[in-house]
Write a structure and sequence with these properties.
The chain is α/β, with parallel strands linked by helices and about 650 residues long. The protein has three domains: about 30-70 and about 80-445, 3-Layer(aba) Sandwich (Rossmann fold), CATH 3.40.50; about 455-525, Luciferase, domain 3, CATH 2.30.38; about 530-655, ANL, C-terminal domain (GMP Synthetase, Chain A, domain 3). The chain has an eight-stranded mixed sheet, sandwiched between helices. It has a seven-stranded mixed sheet with strand order 5-4-17-16-18-19-20, with helices on both faces. Strand 29, helix 20 (about 580-595) and strand 30 (about 605) form a beta-alpha-beta unit. It is globular and about 70 Å long. The protein starts with a helix and ends in a 5-residue tail after the last helix. Bound molecules: ligand 6R9. Ligand 6R9 binds next to helix 13, strand 24 and strand 25. Ligand 6R9 binds near residues 272, 320, 423, 424 and 524. Belongs to the ATP-dependent AMP-binding enzyme family. It is an enzyme of class 6 (ligase). Keywords: Acetylation, ATP-binding, Ligase, Magnesium, Metal-binding, Nucleotide-binding. Its EC number is 6.2.1.1. GO terms for molecular function: acetate-CoA ligase activity; AMP binding; ATP binding; metal ion binding.
Length: about 650
């Protein structure tokens, strides 16, 4: 086919080529006893603020707020500003006071197979001791504490101890380099760092403290380093600065009176890497954040705290760990599993073994993990009893329909609803998602803004697009768990999120509305390709590639091209059964052409064995673009595994 014929395809027809007709109704039993029903949408659209005021009453306030939203100085919001509460009290003490102290809060599963069950009563004691310890180290309300820990219960305890005394935590991923840690400690001006000797990853101890020791040669202001002993490996020690957790915290009183803090008291700073420039410190505060984290966890997972066993596989260094391991589940009195390690240690069935062992009922994971499980083979989950599962969640990236359907079939036995939850570090909590007892789900779509949330899709001119068209995802009303600013940089907050479209929050994601008005996410707009004048989303091409039986995973980028402006370059990982050949590559190109239209055919397809991902599983397309355009590869500090780029470069082919 000639190029001008290919160009005859309009944007609209291309966008409409991704047709997904499968529909799944909520299970009748779940719908009949769901925490939240369709009424919530009606109630929230009638009076959005009254709706959120009601959700705020799910929490325990020391002083009940009388004002819901102060939007007198947009885009700087205050929610429940005259209310006072203690976030840690809400996550721990109140469950003990309500007679649920014996309920397990955390089933901890270490990677080497050690396990610990921690009840709410024990968690209250431990958080109180840690709060006393932080105060003894000189941490006061309003200070910042950096947390650099593996996925162990002390991570949760540390965050809650900070919340209890009104200090903001800044959790940094355990995998980040000393430089990445140093810049985050400096930007937040942290006074104390909480770390560990190390954690277990891929079957062996992985040291953490050396990165802190190195980072602290580059920044000032850190007075104390509190060190958890996890692996027992030897560590360097700075007398006067370093303190063992088991010596300081264990010796404290288990009594600590939670002070009531203002609803707008900073709760945490969490850095997002962004594609350029220095990381942004996203600031979240207390009352509004907890209201929405708690409500969405209750509504979207239909959590029944007496009977459910919930498991979110995220790391606490990601916002998903903050909102859906710590604040959402614990504020709701959930029993949850926390797992330290990787999904293939010591074997590829580890996740399913954990589901079986604890009788997990609600599982929340990421598309990247689901695609990896698909690649490993259906027979692995089939060996375990997964019948306890009743709701499955997805977060982090658009989930392609093939992965969605596989998740439902092979993990959910073809009966569990799947909730594809769209949100961001900046939004603090879920924004767009099905409700498991209400929504008829569509594989690949996050579908609809949650009750109390206002989202839409607009074009370049900020006009709302009609159903069946694509554009930019925007949020049109403030929401309780919205970021309050970028730490120390109000102007960057305004410029990044509120300047592109007047009065609306620009999420940075492309999206389209289908004929029913349901929302489909299309990936970051920075990643959208422009081929011969046509906008093509990386998500749609990747989804088409993964729809071919030989492909397990794919990443697509637009590389500068003299003829077409940008050309589509794809990187694919094959399934175990497929082998790389010129024929297969030709077939994949044709497959994309058939699925999406000839213009979406990748110019080049590289078969590789790994893709560059962040620790939260997002593909770093920027680095693949560097390869595709023959540049030196840029900043790789936030990669989960920095050796991946060398591997991919060595596997670069010119096939296609
Ligand atoms: C929670 C989290 C935010 C970006 C976001 C979008 C992508 C997250 C998604 C999704 C499609 C979903 N994203 N969930 N895209 N469908 N269900 O991931 O926060 O790490 O800040 O990333 O992730 O591109 O803008 P964060």
């Amino acid at each position: 086919m000639r190029l001008d014929e290919e160009c005859a395809l309009s944007n609209e027809s291309l966008a409409n080529l991704l047709k997904e007709e499968r529909r799944f109704a909520p299970p009748a039993e779940l719908a009949a006893s769901a925490n939240v029903t369709a009424d919530a949408y009606a109630q929230a659209s009638e009076d959005r603020l009254a709706f959120w005021a009601e959700q705020a009453r799910r929490l325990s306030w020391a002083v009940e707020p009388t004002e819901t939203l102060d939007w007198s100085n947009p885009p700087f919001a205050k929610w429940f500003a005259d209310g006072k509460l203690n976030v840690a009290y809400n996550c721990v003490d109140r469950h003990v006071e309500a007679g649920n102290g014996d309920r397990v809060a955390i089933h901890f599963e270490g990677e080497p197979g050690d396990s610990r069950a921690i009840t709410y009563a024990q968690l209250k004691d431990e958080v109180s001791r840690a709060a006393n310890a932080l105060q003894e180290l000189g941490v006061a309300k309003g200070d910042r504490v950096a947390v650099y820990l593996p996925m162990i219960p002390e991570a949760v305890v540390s965050m809650l101890a900070c919340a209890r005394i009104g200090a903001a935590h800044s959790v940094v991923f355990g995998g980040f380099s000393a430089d990445a840690v140093a810049s985050r400690i400096q930007d937040a001006d942290a006074k104390v760092v909480i770390t560990a000797d190390g954690g277990y990853r891929r079957g062996k101890p992985s040291a953490l403290k050396p990165a802190i020791d190195e980072a602290l040669t580059k920044v000032d202001g850190v007075e104390k380093v509190l060190v958890v002993r996890r692996t027992g490996e030897e560590v360097a020690w700075t007398e006067g600065r370093d303190v063992w957790w088991h010596e300081l915290v264990d010796a404290q009183s288990a009594e600590h009176t939670p002070e009531a803090h203002d609803a707008e008291q900073p709760l945490f700073i969490l850095y997002t890497s962004g594609t350029t420039g220095k990381p942004k410190g996203i600031l979240h505060t207390s009352g509004g954040y907890l209201t929405q984290a708690s409500y969405t966890h209750h509504a979207v997972f239909d959590l029944k705290p007496e009977t459910d066993v919930y498991w979110c596989t995220a790391d606490i260094g990601w916002v998903t760990g903050h909102s859906y391991i710590v604040y959402g589940p614990l504020s709701n009195g959930a029993t949850q599993v926390i797992y330290e390690g990787t999904p293939d240690t010591p074997h590829q069935g580890r996740f399913w073994e954990i589901v079986q062992k604890y009788g997990v009922t609600i599982l929340y994971t990421a598309p990247t993990a689901i695609r990896t499980f698909m690649k490993w083979g259906d027979d692995i989950p089939a060996r375990y009893d997964l019948s306890s599962l009743r709701v499955l969640g997805s977060v982090g990236e658009p989930i392609n329909p093939e992965a969605w359907v596989w998740y439902r079939e092979h993990i959910g036995a073809g009966r569990t609803p799947i909730v594809d939850t769209w949100w961001q570090t900046e939004t603090g909590a879920m924004m767009i998602s099905p409700l498991p007892g209400v929504t008829e789900t569509k594989p690949g779509s996050a579908q609809r803004a949650l009750p109390g949330i206002a989202a839409t899709v607009v074009d370049d001119e900020a006009r709302e697009v009609p159903n069946g068209s694509g554009g930019y995802l925007v949020l049109t009303e403030p929401w309780p768990s919205m970021l309050r600013t970028i730490w120390g940089d109000d102007q960057r907050y305004i410029d990044t999120y509120w300047s592109r479209f007047e009065g609306r929050y620009f999420a940075g994601d492309g999206a389209k509305k289908d004929e029913d008005g349901d929302i489909w996410l299309l990936g970051r707009v920075d990643d959208v390709m422009l081929v011969s004048g046509h906008n093509i989303s990386t998500t749609e091409v990747e989804s088409a590639l993964v729809g071919h039986p030989a492909v397990a995973e794919s990443a697509v980028v637009g590389a500068t091209d003299a003829t077409t402006g940008q050309a589509i370059v794809a990187f694919v990982i094959l399934r175990g059964s497929a082998t790389d050949s010129a024929d297969l590559v030709a077939e994949l190109r044709n497959h994309v052409g058939r699925t999406l239209g000839p213009i979406a055919k990748p110019k080049q397809i590289n078969v590789v064995s790994e893709l560059p991902k962040t620790r939260s599983g997002k593909i770093m397309r920027r680095l693949l673009r560097d390869i595709a355009e023959g540049r030196e590869v840029g900043d790789t500090t936030t990669l989960a595994d920095s050796s991946v780029m060398n591997l991919i470069q060595s596997q670069q082919t010119t096939t296609g």
